[in-house]
Every structure is written in C-alpha cells, then in structure tokens.
Design goal:
The complex is a heterodimer of chains A (354) and B (246). By secondary structure, chain A is mainly alpha-helical. Chain A is built from 21 helices and two strands. In chain A, helix 17 (232-239) crosses helix 18 (241-248). In chain B, strands 1-2 form a two-stranded antiparallel ribbon. Classes of the chains: A mainly alpha (354), B mainly alpha (246). Chain A binds chain B through residues 238, 241, 244-245, 247-254, 296, 298-300, 302-308, 313, 318, 320-321, 324-325, 328, 331-332, 335-336, 339-340, 342-343, 345-350, 352, and chain B through 38, 41-42, 47, 50, 54-58, 108, 110-113, 152-153, 156-157, 159-166, 168-170, 173-174, 176-177, 180-181, 184-185, 188, 193-194.
C-alpha cells in the first residue's frame, strides 16, 4: 500500500538504537563502577537543588543490571565527574537537572534527540514547563529497558501524564484488545502520535495524514483479513467528497490551524474508537445523524444515508446509485462509440468518393 | 432583415444565439477544467491544476460559480425559447421529427454505400438536433445533480440520502459523456469534417456561405430562396415562403 508505507517513513518508526555500543561491555566498566559505588551506594547521599528540592544519588547495581545500558561505563553518561570528590555544580531545580541529561543521551542517540526538537514536548520544555517530558521522564535512567517490551508499556508510559486519555483508550476497541487480550496488532500511542517527534494535536500537517495513518493498518489486506475487516475503507474514503478534499490538502488561503474536512477520527472517534457494530460507536446507525451534525448543523435523519458507509454500491444496498452507475457504464460507450463510428464511416465514404 | 440574394453569405444565427454559444463554450471549458480534477483527483495533472488555482477550495469555488452561471444561461435560453414557442414566433426548427430518424437512416445507408441518396436537410440537420438536445438534457441533468451536490443538507430534508451519491455518480459520468461527445463529435463536425475543415465559423459570425447553405440545408434554402432552388430540385418549396433572418 503506497499510502501506508509513505506514512511509515514519515512517522519515522524505524529502529535507531546504537545496539552494538550497548551490548559489548566497555573496557574497564566494572572497575570504574566499583569506584563510583564506593560513595553512590550510600543511601543518604543526595543532591541539593537551588529550589530546595533534593535528589537521591544512590545507584543500585541490580537496577542497572537489567538495563540495556548495563555494558556502559558510568562516565559514558555522567561525564565530567572524573575528579573525586566532584566539583560543585549548581542545579536550578529537579526538572532542569533531569532535562540536562537529554544532552547526555544525544551523544549516542543523536537522531532521536534531533526529532524531539520538533516535538510538542520539547516546545513545552523550551517554554520552561517543569512537567514537560524529557528523555529520562519517559525512558527512565538506570533501569532503562526497551520501551516496547511488552508493547502495552508504551501506552502506560504516556499514561503517567495523560491519564484521562489513557482511560479512554483503554476502553476503545484498540486499547481493550491490547490490554485485555495482549493483541500485538493494535496501535499504541506512539503508532499514531509518533514517539520522539510527537506533533501537537492541532498540527495540521500531522492531522491531514490521518487517513494514511489509519490506512497503514486498515488498508493492509493481510492484517485486516485476520479480523474480517474491509480494506476498502481508505479507498472509499478517498474517493468521496471528504477524502478527495483531504487528499488535496490545504489550499493557499486556508488558515494554518484549520481542520478543512472530516477525517477518519471525526466520525469514528479518536481515543474512544469503538467497533462499528458497537451501539456506543459514533458511527453506529442510530448515532450517525448526531455525528454528521457535528459539522453539518441542520442535517436531517435522511442525511447520513448520503454516505455509503465505505461500501461499494450494490443493487441491494444502494439501488439508486447502483442503477445510475450501471446506466452510464452502458450509455457512455454506446453513445460515444456510436458517434466515433459515424465519424469513421463518414471519412471512409469521403475517401471512397474520390 | 431582407434576404441577401446577391451576396455570398446568408444570416443563419442571431446575435443572442451567437452570444449564447460563446457563453456555453466558455463555461463548458471552465467547468471541464475545474470538474475533471475532482473526478480524477489522484492524477498528477489534477494536482497540477488544483495547485495552479490555489487549492481544492478555490477550484470548487470556480466550478460552482461557473455552474451557477451555466444554470442562469440555461434558464434564459429555455424561458426565451418557450416564450417564443408560446408566442408563435418560433420556427420550431429544433423540434425532432420523424424525418430526422429517416435522415439518420438515409445518411448511414449512404455512408455504408448501401445507397447514393443523400438526405436533404432543413434548417437543422439531425446531427445538430442531436447535439442541441444532448446539451439541453445533459445540461439539465448537470444542473439538477450539481444542485444536489451543492446543497446536500437542504436536499435531504425532503429526499432520501441516497440521492446525493447517486447525483454524484450521475454528475461525474454525465460530465464525462458531454466532454467526450464534444471533443469527438462536435469538434469533428465543426473543424475536421472534410466539408468544413478547418473551421466552420458560422456560429461566431452568424453567417453561412450561400453555397454551403444550399448543400447543407437544402430544404431551408429552397424555402427561403425558392427562385434559386428550381435547378437543384431539392425538396419541395413550402407555401410559407416567409423571410426570416434566423
């Protein structure tokens, strides 16, 4: 699927971990750690911030032992601390101290670090929001393991801050499958929102990619086949008014934050997406009129039928559309073919006459 | 206007008729250029055209404006035509008759060399009538379905929702058919047919060469210029030998 693969590239979901550095033990790592632990196993060792906050400076070897970074030297991350006791370094507050570690992560994870600079989270951080996430807030520090093991952990990580959204997601068709059934096919937060370069929810460039984003799975025949779902949802959307408009994207005069047109999520919901046959779904037959009315204020009960629900028109499902289509399928070749034939006959007779 | 017996040309179309053709030509081109990119939205040329006008919103605005102007033009044409018929001022030259079907058969037989008899035509031959009624009926379909697509909320207050996708299918296909008929049949008949090549200017100048009129509209010619028709024996000059400038 062209759209889907393009979306995968744009979302930057490829792996980017410098795996080798993390598995081959760095020479002298164990010896160095022993030296550090002389002090850093002391439970009372702590750091005092200018703000009055304190941070424990204890490192538990058993925590690091389970980490993907267990092979690194302490000073690989904690650089500039060769001198013992360490030189005094002022720290404004806890948040700023933790954020400063992002600069450390960058030395190896430069691509992901660079991506975060475009993220909505970095924007918050830059504005001085103490709660804005940084590398350590999502990934942890000494205990760091691969973020998607198990996959459900990703969404739980986001839930640390986005608790309400997570609760909604957990009730959705995707969230339920993940959390209750351990389904590995359904999207977690980062599949749609990306991980490092998370866009703001009003970022139109990202929003307008919604059809491609949903289509990555929902237009994948193999994947949808498993669940008996139609893959025509993307093509039928793109062929209709909303999809065509979305496909062309914003025009020159459209304001930057304008939504333009109904995307997948406008009808199906976002974090609360439910099965189409679930009576609580916004696209369940009896809820449709209300869903359409979100944009089309005076829509009558007849209006939802103007959309063929991603189905190809058939004689039993949409007899009028089917008949009109059939009519033109015959009349166009008949009329145009007939006229061209007459042109050819005319030319032939002109030639014969000469 | 009196007949121009001694001149080479005869007036065939009035000023308003020529203006109407020009407007249809202009609006048809604009509607096709702004309509097909919506039908074939995946194509590269469609993207190019949409970007050229600034976006899909802008293109739809142009398409709808041209569509409303086309509807206005159709309204003017049909009301004046109906008024003329009711007032008895119309020659009824566009009304299809049994003879048109006979002419079609005669012409096809001629093309197929089944006979050497050529049909003799009156003011409008069967091809012209076919095109005229094609654009009238096709135009009405486009106007009605275009209205449904422009005002789906209003339309579905009274009609079932399914008329909207049906109108879309009809609008899209009828437009395609009209386009194909124009670029094949119409362009051939007024540009590439050996009799008129390279350009039949009559609809723009309003005038037709006397000699061509005698060939292509023999019956009308005989009626308007009965004194010239004798030598050609074309048709029967009718009793109503009235002078019209149409």
């Amino acid at each position: 699927m062209r759209v889907a693969s393009a979306a995968a590239v744009l979302l930057g979901l490829g792996p980017s971990v410098p795996a080798e550095a993390a598995t081959t033990p760095a020479p002298g790592a164990a010896e160095e750690a022993e030296g550090c632990l002389t002090c850093h196993s002391d439970e009372t060792l702590s750091l005092q911030m200018d703000s009055g906050e304190t941070a424990s400076l204890v490192m538990k070897p058993e925590v690091l032992a389970g980490s993907v970074h267990k092979a690194l030297r302490c000073t690989d991350c904690h650089a500039g601390l060769d001198e013992v006791p360490h030189a005094e370094r002022p720290h404004k507050n806890l948040a700023q101290w933790k954020t400063s570690f992002s600069e450390v992560c960058k030395t190896c994870h430069f691509d992901n670090y660079t991506k975060t600079l475009d993220s909505v989270h970095y924007g918050l951080q830059a504005r001085g929001d103490a709660f804005a996430p940084n590398c350590v807030k999502c990934h942890g520090s000494h205990e760091m393991t691969k973020p998607a093991q198990p996959r459900s952990r990703i969404s739980q990580t986001c839930a640390t801050c986005h608790e309400g959204i997570y609760a909604k997601y957990a009730r959705s068709v995707h969230g339920k499958a993940l959390i209750e059934d351990g389904n590995q096919d359904v999207p977690v937060c980062t599949d749609c929102h990306r991980s490092h370069d998370i866009a703001g929810t009003k970022d139109r460039a990202w929003l307008m990619k919604t059809p491609a984003l949903c289509g990555r799975c929902h237009a994948d025949e193999k994947l949808m086949g498993k669940y008996g779902l139609s893959t025509a949802v993307l093509s039928s959307y793109l062929a209709d008014f909303h999809g065509t408009t979305a496909g062309f994207g914003p025009g020159r005069k459209d304001a930057g934050d304008q939504r333009l047109v109904a995307l997948c999520v406008d009808c199906h919901g976002i974090h609360d997406i439910a099965k189409v046959k679930d009576p609580s779904s916004s696209v369940f037959r009896t809820n449709l009129a209300k869903t359409c009315a979100k944009c089309h204020a005076n829509a009558s009960a007849n209006f939802p039928a103007a959309w063929l629900s991603h189905y190809e028109p058939t004689f039993s499902h949409a007899p009028l559309v089917f008949s009109v289509r059939l009519f033109y399928r015959f009349i166009i070749p008949f009329i145009v073919g007939g006229l061209i034939l007459q042109i050819l006959l005319h030319l032939w007779r002109v030639v014969v006459n000469r | 206007m009196s007949r121009k017996r001694d001149q080479d040309q005869v007036v065939r179309f009035s000023g308003p008729e020529r203006v109407q053709h020009f407007m249809v030509m202009l609006l048809f081109t604009v509607l096709a250029l702004t309509g097909f990119p919506q039908k074939y939205h995946d194509a590269g040329w469609a993207r190019f055209l949409v970007n050229t006008v600034g976006g899909i919103g802008e293109m739809r605005f142009v398409h709808r404006t041209a569509g409303l102007l086309f509807a206005g033009l159709a309204l003017i044409h049909l009301t004046t035509a109906i008024a003329a018929v009711l007032a008895g001022r119309s020659s009824l030259g566009m009304v299809p008759t049994r003879k048109d079907f006979q002419d079609t058969v005669t012409t096809l037989r001629y093309y197929l060399r089944l006979s050497d008899v050529r049909a003799k035509f009156d003011r409008f031959d069967y091809r012209e009538k076919f095109e005229y009624w094609g654009i009238v009926i096709g135009g009405l379909i486009m106007i009605v379905t275009g209205f449904v697509l422009l005002f789906p909320i209003m339309v579905t207050q009274v009609l079932p929702g399914e008329v909207v996708p049906a109108a879309k299918v009809a609008h899209s296909n009828e437009g395609l058919m009209a386009f194909l008929v124009v670029i094949t049949w119409h362009i051939y008949n007024v540009h590439f047919a050996p009799e008129v090549f390279p350009f039949n200017k009559t609809i723009f100048t309003g005038k037709i060469d006397r000699e061509r009129m005698r060939h292509e509209h023999a019956l009308e010619y005989a009626r308007r210029f009965p004194e010239d028709a004798g030598d050609r024996g074309s048709g029967t000059p009718t009793a109503e030998n009235k002078t019209e400038d149409k």
